[in-house]
Amino acid sequence: MKKIKVLIAKLGLDIHWRGAVVVSRFLRDAGMEVVYIGNKYPDEIVDAAIQEGVDVIGLSTLSGNHLTLGPKVVRLLAERGIKDIPVLIGGVIPPADVEELKKHGIAGVFVPETPMEEIIKFIEDIVIQKRGLPK
Amino acid sequence: MKIFSSEALDQIKGCLATWKKQTLKQNIPPATTESGVPIELVYTPVDIGEMDYLEDVGLPGEAPFVRGIYPNMYRGRLFTIRQLAGFGSPEDCNKRIRYLLEHGATGVNIVFDLPTIRGYDSDDSRAEGNVGQCGVSIDSLRDIEALFENVPIDKISVSLVTHLPSVTVAILAMYLAMAEKRGIPFTDLAGTTQNDFLMETTIGSAPEIIPPRHSFRLQCDVVEFCSKNLPRWNSISYNGYNLREAGTDAVAEVAIAIANAKATAKELLRRGLDIDSFAPRLSFFWDLCDDFFEEIAKCRASRYVWQKIAREELGARNPRSMWMRFHVQTSGISLTRVEPFNNIARAAIQGLAAVLGGAQSLHIDSYDEAYSAPTEEAALVSLRTQQIIQVETGVVNTVDPLGGSYYVEYLTRELAARIQEYIQKIENEGGIVRAVETGWLHREIADFAYTQQRALENGQKRKVGLNYYPSKEVGKTEIAVFTYPETEKRQKEKLAKLKQERDGELVKRALRRLEEACASGENVMPYAVEAAKAEATLGEITQVFRDHFGLWQFPLITL
Fold first, then answer.
1. In sequence order, what are the residues at sequence separation of 6 or more whose Cβ sits closer than 8 angstroms to the Cβ of residue B91?
2. What is the CATH number of the domain that holds B94?
3. Which of A21, A37, A65 has its CB closest to that of B446?
4. Which residue of A has its CA nearest to B465?
5. How large is the average pLDDT for residues B530-543?
6. Does some domain include residue B338?
């Protein structure tokens, strides 16, 4: 299978970079190609995803902007006619917001206690599905 | 003079060897502290045989201050109960501050939302989604006045967790403008600003960052201004806490913060200041994590290392310049979302370690902080935990009660040595500013964070309810989670009104003078105070710095 390519971004002003960097490294250890772009706003994230031709976008935030800026990334992708780049969010997300994010088209939500294995498997599965490959 | 004679030590060594063979009779698997110091099964005088009590430990209130900075410690004055508060608009947050004070908090501790922390007004597009989240939103002098309405700022000490030097300049300026309007002399103001350039350039990432060198300069400007005008104000709180949370062990946490303090002192000496004019107001901020004894030893060791540097390398003569005074917050990263009430136990134990370590002030995390800012109910449990430590446990009745424990003394010495080694490592990188510019420090942090996560994933580091007897409750939550009040709209309306009512020309002139000070190298603080008085906004003041100093690219390290 072609290497899975993931874009990881810190969402807007969120300052906590630990999670994004650690997840990036675990994904790389699992054989994926990771493009880490640091702190960016939704339009810049969408631009980078298109330019880099990534399979998945992973957003990291721990400071409460997930409900505003997360769905905005999904919306901007749709506006640009892109339907095949799923958007995931990881960070401190209150339980009540998880369903809300999914309603707005966020494909997966990961919280601090999510094991790395689960994130890796989630991304692998979603890409396999997207590429129409057998599991 | 050594405490134990060599005859006594030899005798103990002999007995230990026999004890191992005849009494213990087994091999014990190795153990280490969280930062990797090997731990013996049992400690005896042999492990501190080299220790000279008066030279290396001393009496409280006397160098090397291992036992505490005050001779009477908590029998003289209890540690300050300084619980964080910050969410929503300043009007919302004012209610929480007063609630905490009414229930016995003895200091105020304000945390700001991210737009404020990064110097953007609430109506800035970059602030979208973050206004009033995780902290209180401040745009102007009017907001600072609303935040402290009916709070006696001339009587209680106020900590402003301003993170960046540039934002410290603006917020402290507004605070001073408020004091002036209330007729309170600057000399009566007691408190702390965080003012740490590592918060801007290393610990937190962001879309826009002022270059490390210039951020460091603003940090030093605040320290210099305070030393001349605010005798009771801690001009800086070297933030080991957020370093630790981002990814360091206990040794690096303390070493990096002290390296920054040393660099600050050297810069102010270069500016012609006397070390004893500003060093007494440098303060520190530690993160007390899971390893109980190591954290206590860390606090003791930090006092030893700082006094040594202040005395031997910086030429301090006033003992106050040698005092390592520190605030403690219990570890946020150690909290779990599963079974959140377990966090009450974690935070209480970490808080106890802080008190046994001789902290000057304390924030105990609330059980719901892995979800959101604490509810009023959860904040009260934290406050009550502090009061339980103060008046029920009796631990405050004697100074440094663990002093003399073979283990704690051994660990204190060992950590002090390791902290000094790490400071040397930073010096070898060209000093703290250079270590940031090259991304060396970021790499150290990323590396440690990765290693720690590995240990958690493979079960080497155990977390109750998470990877040790994992909870079946994952994904469910039984507790009330705090929801932030809608803030953005209210703040924007106030800003629009402010911009209509203030004298726009006055603001422009004040900002121009601030920019001139940036260019001339003059201290920016007096000009920032003028700008705050003219009701320039936070965003307008910090934009002067961004425009003048330019922006720096945060190292994108993923290893």
1. B146
2. 3.20.20.240
3. A21
4. A113
5. 98
6. yes
Amino acid at A57: I
Considering only CB atoms, B337 lies closest to which of A8, A28, A113, namely A113
Q: State the pLDDT at residue B477.
A: 63
Residues of B in contact with A52 (CB under 8 A): none
pLDDT digits (tens, 9 = 90+) for B523-535: 999 999 999 999 9
Going by C-alpha positions, the residue among A60, A70, A63 that lies closest to residue A101 is A70
- Asked whether residue B119 is assigned to any structural domain, the reply reads yes
Q: Quote the minimal CA–CA distance from A116 to chain B in Å.
A: 7
The answer to whether A116 contacts B453, with C-beta atoms less than 8 Å apart, is yes
Mean pLDDT of chain A: 95
Residue B368 inside a domain? The answer is yes
Quickly count: other Cβ atoms within 10 Å of residue B272's Cβ: 7
Mutation for A interface: B87, B113, B130, B448, most A CBs within 10 A: B130
Provide the 10 A C-beta neighbour count for residue B212. 22
A5-130 CATH, one of 3.40.50.280, 3.40.1570.10, 3.30.565.10, 3.40.190.10: 3.40.50.280
Query: How many CB atoms within 10 Å of residue B392?
Result: 8
Name the residue facing B128 among A14, A17, A68 (closest C-beta).
Answer: A68
CB pairs under 8 A between A and B: 114
Residue listed under structure tokens 């493979």? B458
* Both tokens assigned to B3: 């405490």
Torsion of CA B346, B351, B357, B359, to 10 degrees: 150
Domain that holds residue B100: 53-457
Q: How confident is the model at residue B481 (pLDDT cuts 50, 70, 90)?
A: confident
CB–CB of B205 and A28 under 8 A?
Answer: no
Residue B496 lies in a domain: no
- Facing A65 at nearest CB: one of B130, B372, B474: B130
Residues of B in contact with A116 (CB under 8 A): 453, 457
Helix axes B525-533, B504-520, angle to 10 degrees: 170
Residue B475 has pLDDT above 80, yes or no: no
Residue-wise pLDDT for B59-112, tens only, equals 999 999 999 999 999 999 999 999 999 999 999 999 999 999 999 999 999 999
pLDDT band at A1 (very low <50, low <70, confident <90, very high): confident
Domain count, chain B: 1
Residue-range domain boundaries for chain A: 5-130
pLDDT for B137 equals 98
Nearest CA in chain A to B556: A38
User: How many whole angstroms from its chain centre is CA B551?
Assistant: 25
Question: According to the model, what pLDDT value does residue B474 have?
Answer: 60
**pLDDT for B406-445, tens place per residue?**
999 999 999 999 999 999 999 999 999 999 999 999 999 9
Query: Which of B153, B116, B107 lies closest to B135 in space, CA to CA?
Result: B116
| B477–A16 C-beta distance less than 8 A | no
- Say if the Cβ atoms of A64 and B477 lie within 8 Å: no
- A35: closest CA of chain B, how far (Å): 9
Rounded distance between C-alpha atoms, residue B157 and residue B148, angstroms: 12
Q: How many CA atoms lie within 13 A of B436 on its CB side?
A: 29
Question: ipTM surpassing 0.90, yes or no?
Answer: yes
